[in-house]
Design a protein that fits this description.
Layout (H helix, E strand, L loop, with lengths): L5 E6 H11 L13 H14 L13 E5 L7 H5 L15 H13 L4 E2 L6 H14 L3 E5 L13 E5 L4 E3 L1 H8 L6 H8 L14 H11 L2 H6 L7 H9 L1 H11 L21 H11 L2 H11 L30 H13 L18 H13 L9 E2 L3 H14 L1 E8 L9 E9 L2 E6 L21 H12 L5 E4 L2 H9 L8 E3 H9 L8 H9 L6 H5 L13 H28 L3 H8 L2 H11 L1 E3 L1 H26 L8 H11 L17 H9 L3 H20 L12 E2 L2 E3 L9 E3 L11 H7 L2 E2 L4 E8 L2 H10 L2 H9 L3 H10 L8 H15 L4 H8 L3 H14 L1 H17 L1 E3 L5 E3 L8 H37 L5 E5 L3 E7 L3 H13 L14 E6 L2 H4 L1
Parallel strand pairs: 1-2, 1-4, 2-3, 4-5, 7-10, 8-11, 11-12
Antiparallel strand pairs: 5-6, 8-9, 9-10, 13-14, 13-17, 15-16, 18-22, 18-23, 19-20, 21-22
Helix pairs in contact: 1-2, 2-4, 7-8, 7-11, 12-13, 16-17, 18-24, 19-22, 20-22, 25-28, 27-28, 30-37, 32-33, 33-34, 34-35, 35-36, 36-37, 37-38
The chain binds a DNA duplex through helix 26, helix 28, strand 16, helix 33 and helix 34.
DNA sequence: ACAGAAGCTTA
DNA sequence: GTAAGCTTCTGTT
């Protein structure tokens, strides 16, 4: 082996297990021999060996070997007898495949390497070292984290199932430490699968942070006393020996006395007949044909190889090689019945899109109006003068559809790959900027030649996007706005087809994504992103896409956006919805884009401390739960839990879920706990702790942006039926507050140094909106007087004076008030209050007697919805309920409740939208530098310099309290409570 | 690897 | 009883 040579080392054993679990089971047709993993293996190896067409890895191997584990017993068992002790036996239908895969390796003429006493990983480590020392490179075909310690400048990894390169940056991204520290990291975290102990309470996040702080494991153990957190320090001091043993266990041996040398691994051209003989015997028809073509072999002339199938565990019976479990048999039958070529799927899928013929014909009629779309007619712009000509053309036209292509759905992470423009239907172009050349080094190719330099292209584009006399049209503009903002470009004068569609059609079937809209309005099926850039394991990224295809896809997006705009924009005015779009949607786009870009500071230390506490609490509860249950089980499995509670322990079951399982919901468990059962209480507590840990303390740090060090959520403007926003990745609209434990998570949301967080929230905004809309005198009066609204309701209903009212009476009234907003039903109220349905029914009756205006409002809203198919907020936003006329009483009732709720929830959503749109200019006018960061439906969070807090609070309150005006003069005052503090918990 | 169910968090 | 999003487990591919 010499410089420039490249060794591929396939982790054969690792691949067998992954292929077995990831791929559908497959059985040889003639006798049912399980062969799924074998086929996966053969496909993968064949792909890797095909040098000239090997675009996946981007490198050509000169040397190739497949490495296997020899037996489960290795030198590590002498170090630590429990090593890999809790491994269970492999599945029955996998056993015969071990031998077949070795057989396959030989059929490929590849060295099949294994050695007694050593794991495959040690052999891989040794050969990787030998290749490096010989001046060559090595690529390990595996995704096992145990091998990541080997990654370096001349050693890479490649995950064939996800089609992903793993180099130094990927290791750092995944584990937070460079490859050379992986050993220390694994020594600390341990590995439950392999029974490597590690240090209890230390997970990957903590381990990475400790290694960052102390450098390496030895230093950490020597200076453990300096660790601030009491529990963590103690655990590390107490378990130093375990950490050292773990390190020995995870350290791969790079000096195994191997028998074969690298020269034995030189890759030979495939021996067609031998390989085909094996593939034929396996009955892999497609692969056989492919190999025959590539090696110019005549399939018919090759005889299928005769194979000796290794026996599965003899104790399981004589019919070795056949699937003997019922599940395996049925999948064998399925495979045989369907045939290999025919995809599964029944004839019933024809009806799945829910399209009725009448709707379809209407859509076709529309489509006929639209001109045909030809995706091969677009231009690909590769020089500056042409781009400048397109910019001039857009100026001339006064409008241009615009779209960006990037590397990520998250605009804060996305790198610009190109952009497209359209100036008239069918006239669209794509400007590639960051496409990579297919081939290159391990980490992907270099920049494709012939593209306009990003700086030049953006310099040409910037004046166009910032020109207020040219209308920019985009689909989901907020995304492109964030991307362009990050390149110093500010887009003004724009329309957003997604938002126009949302205003027109919120709640109708079908989403507001471009693919849906194109089909609905243009009758045109767009190219799919995944067909250009791949998806799942075949994802390669848009920057790897072929330029011709990329042009067709990207320019089509701009073309379709422009055509959609021409269809949709006029409809706004026609339906009287222009002001909803112009006041509540369009101006919010840059506001949200800024909030997303600002992000909020989250204190890692606080979260990691909480995470440790939660782990301890959950661990203790787990022990107690197992004690009480009398056995160990997966507490998180409702199925297993139900079996224990209602089966083995014989507790009375409450309700059932729709799949017929006993429900183990918190409500059921609370009831059992109230009857004095110990276990359900502990389950509820355990669930609380593990929920907080997994959803919040463990997940949030992963969202901290590497550069800004802040958390940037993403707001969806067109996701809800009512006009509310939604927040995702991460969802910052469901951060805990109800319990004191959960609340602690809010203390991790903090203001930057010298700043405070301001939280301002509307008090009872939905009830106030209801009081206005339904015009209820008592409610209006109570809000005008600032009286406790739930107490007032209770007083009216139960004739109890507000003074000295029992808390339970108020609680019931509060539940009823909420119920009204949700379109109350006796069933729901009974559930909420745990009272008989008759009693709930009686409450509702009394409520309507005292507040007849509410019943009138509900009835008229239902009637309006049935008549028109939609309901409206006080600002004219529509929410559609096309199924409110359903003949299914349950379904209809559900739609009625939703229709009653939508104007209330939606009006409140509109009000806070109006406040948000006005907020920035109001703050600027008052010369305040407060920055709006978050919205949580009825609350806004700001970050503001400490010195400006007092001046900021009244401005924020005033904007929010007056947000409905002048469009609507509410009959009820809005009240906003605002507070400032260092963290979100104290500010709220 | 992926989808659906169950469960839990918020307003 | 309204509106959302995320995690875990489980069965299927």
């Amino acid at each position: 082996m010499k410089k420039g040579d490249h060794l591929f080392l396939v982790d054969g054993s690792g691949y067998i297990f992954r292929a077995y679990h990831a791929l559908p089971p497959l059985n040889r047709k003639s006798d049912g021999l399980p062969t799924g993993a074998v086929l996966g293996f053969c496909n993968m190896v064949w792909k890797l060996m095909q040098d000239s067409r090997n675009t996946d890895v981007g490198i050509t191997p000169t040397h190739f070997a497949v490495i296997f584990d020899y037996s489960s017993k290795t030198f590590r068992n002498d170090l630590y007898p429990e090593y890999k002790a809790n491994r269970s036996a492999p599945p029955e239908d996998l056993i015969p495949q071990f031998g077949l895969i070795r057989e396959a390796t030989r059929a490929f003429d590849l060295p099949c390497i294994e050695m007694e006493g050593f794991e495959a990983d040690d052999l891989i480590a040794t050969y990787a070292r030998l290749a490096r020392e010989a001046g060559g490179d090595a690529t390990i075909i595996s995704s096992d984290k145990d091998l990541m310690q080997l990654v370096g400048p001349s050693v890479g990894m490649y995950d064939p199932m996800k089609d992903r390169q793993i180099g130094v940056p990927e290791v750092i991204e995944k584990w937070g430490v460079p490859p050379e520290k992986m050993i220390d990291l694994q020594a600390l975290t341990g590995d439950s699968v392999d029974n490597v102990p590690g240090v209890p309470g230390i997970g990957p996040k903590t381990a990475a942070q400790l290694l960052e702080q102390f450098g390496d494991l030895d230093t950490l153990l020597a200076r453990a006393s300096e660790i601030k957190q009491d529990k963590r320090r103690q655990s590390i001091i107490d378990n130093a020996d375990k950490a050292r043993i773990s390190r020995d266990l995870v350290t791969l041996k790079i000096d195994v006395p191997v028998k074969e040398g690298l020269d034995d691994f030189v890759l030979q051209p495939p021996n067609g007949p031998r390989l085909i003989g094996f593939l034929k015997a396996m009955e892999f028809t497609t692969l056989t044909r492919r190999v025959a073509e590539a090696t110019s072999t005549e399939v018919a002339e090759v005889e299928a190889a005769s194979l000796v199938i290794e026996r599965a565990d003899a104790a399981h019976g004589p019919d070795v090689g056949f699937p003997s479990t019922p599940a395996a048999r049925s999948s064998a039958a399925k495979a045989a019945g369907n045939g290999a070529a025919e995809p599964a799927g029944g004839p019933d899928s024809a009806n799945k899109d829910g399209t009725t013929p009448s709707l379809l014909s209407a859509l076709r009629a529309e489509a006929a109006v639209a001109e045909k779309i030809n995706v091969d007619a677009y231009s690909c712009i590769l020089d500056l003068p042409t781009l400048q000509a397109w910019v001039a053309e857009a100026r001339e036209a006064g409008l241009v559809a615009f779209d960006t292509e990037t590397t990520s759905l998250d605009p804060m992470q996305a790198e610009l790959i190109g952009f497209s423009l359209a100036t008239a239907p069918g006239r669209a172009a794509y400007v590639p900027l960051g496409h990579k050349s297919g081939r290159g080094d391990l980490l992907g190719g270099g920049l494709l030649e012939g593209q306009i330099p990003v700086r030049d292209a953006l310099a040409a584009l910037k004046p166009l996007l910032e020109d207020k006399s040219v209308l920019k049209i985009a689909q989901n503009l907020k995304y492109d706005l964030v991307v362009m903002n990050r390149h110093g470009i500010d887009v003004v004068s724009y329309d957003d087809t997604m938002l126009i569609s949302y205003v027109l059609d919120a709640g109708t079937t079908g989403g507001h994504g471009m693919d849906d809209l194109s089909e609905k309005w243009l009758g045109h099926k767009t190219l799919k992103f995944k067909d250009i850039a791949g998806s799942g394991k075949r994802f390669v990224g848009f920057d790897q896409a072929d330029l011709k295809q990329a042009t067709a896809y990207a320019a089509e997006d701009a073309d379709v956006t422009l055509r959609l705009w021409r269809v949709l924009k006029p409809r706004l005015a026609a339906k009287g919805l222009a002001s909803v779009y112009e006041r509540l949607e369009r101006p919010l786009v840059p506001v949200l884009a800024q909030m997303e870009q600002r992000g909020i500071s989250v204190d890692r230390q606080i979260l990691s401390r909480l995470s440790g506490e939660l782990a301890q609490g959950a661990g203790r509860l787990e022990d107690e739960i197992f004690q009480l249950a009398g056995s160990r089980f997966t507490i998180g499995s409702p199925k297993q839990l139900g079996d224990i509670l209602f089966g083995r322990m014989g507790l009375p079951g409450g309700s059932k879920t729709k799949t017929g399982q006993w429900s183990t919901s918190a409500q059921v468990l609370e009831e059992l706990a109230a009857e004095g059962h110990e276990l359900p209480r502990k389950i509820v507590d355990w669930r609380q702790l593990t929920k907080l840990k997994s959803t919040y303390t463990d997940a949030l740090p992963g969202y901290i942006h590497p550069e800004t060090k802040r958390v940037h959520t993403s707001y969806a403007m067109a996701a809800t039926s009512t006009g509310r926003l939604s927040s995702s990745e991460p969802n910052l609209q469901n951060i805990p507050i109800r319990t004191s434990e959960g609340r602690k998570i809010r203390t991790a949301f903090i203001a930057d140094k010298g700043n405070k967080l301001v939280s301002a929230d509307y008090s009872q905004i939905e009830l106030r909106v209801l009081a206005h809309m339904a015009d209820i005198p008592q409610l209006r009066q109570a809000f005008a007087d600032g009286i406790d609204i739930h107490a007032m309701t209770a007083s009216e209903m139960f004739s109890v004076p507000v003074e000295g009212m029992p808390s339970d009476v108020r609680r019931r009234a509060k539940a009823i008030n909420f119920g009204i907003i949700y379109g109350i039903s006796a069933f729901g109220l009974a559930n909420q209050l745990s009272i008989p349905r008759e009693e709930a029914s009686d409450y509702i009756k009394r409520y309507f007697e005292r507040f007849p205006g509410i019943r009138d409002y509900m009835d008229s809203t239902k009637a309006f919805a049935r008549e028109n198919g939609y309901v409206e907020t006080i600002f004219g936003r529509r929410a559609h309920y096309p199924e409110i006329r359903s003949s299914n009483p349950q379904h209809r009732a559900f739609n009625e409740r939703a229709a009653i709720n939508a104007p209330i929830q939606g009006s409140a959503a509109d009000i806070i939208r109006r406040a948000m749109v006005r907020m920035d200019s109001a703050l600027a006018e008052a010369k305040l530098s407060a920055r709006m960061l978050l919205q949580v439906h009825d609350e806004l969070i700001f970050e503001t310099p400490e010195g400006e807090v007092e001046a900021t609070l009244p401005v924020v309150r005033s904007v929010m309290e007056n947000a409905a005006m002048p469009a609507v003069n509410l009959a009820v005052p809005l009240q906003v409570d605002a507070r400032a503090a260092h963290n979100w918990d104290e500010a709220h």
